[in-house]
Amino acid sequence: MSDAKTRPTPADVTAFLDAKAEPARRAEADQLLALMRRVTGYEPQMWGPSIVGFGQYHYRYESGREGNAPLVGFSPRKTDWSIYLVAGAEAPEHAALMQRLGKHKMGKACLSVKRLSDIDLGVLEELVRGSVAEIQKRYP
Fold first, then answer.
1. Which residues pair with 67 in a beta bridge?
2. What is the pTM of this model?
3. Largest Cα–Cα distance in the chain?
4. Residues 6 or more apart from 137 whose CB is under 8 A from it?
5. Where are the domains of the chain?
6. What is the pLDDT of residues 16-70, one digit of tens each?
7. Which 3-state string (H, E, C) describes 41-58?
8. Which CATH number fits the domain 13-138, given the four candidates 3.90.1150.200, 3.30.420.240, 3.40.50.720, 3.60.150.10?
9. Higher pLDDT, 8 or 2
């Protein structure tokens, strides 16, 4: 089994964001930093070369694969923000939140938005809060 490439690093979060985002997107990064700090109570840390993560948990799958991952996180991509959280699509309240969120795409654990102004940040905060709770329930 290969080692996970996404691990905590000592890289500076502020320097990474300053280098990756032009001023308007840098301001959005500050909004995401504040939201995730508030919800998780953790300070941001770089995970691998491009993910800003908050907190961490240890997972172990039935297949035997295991590792550590941030509770939540985000990454500035060329055209959008990747926001990493656990989708709780089976929960009716999650589906209702996703409908209220605004313009987005959702993968298994990656929410993509072009601009934070395209979404309701209050709903995003609820999604982040729910994701943290779900991870803590699955991996106590």
1. 59
2. 0.90
3. 44
4. none
5. 13-138
6. 999 987 888 999 999 999 999 999 999 999 999 999 999 999 988 888 888 899 9
7. CCCEEEECCCEEEECCEE
8. 3.90.1150.200
9. 8
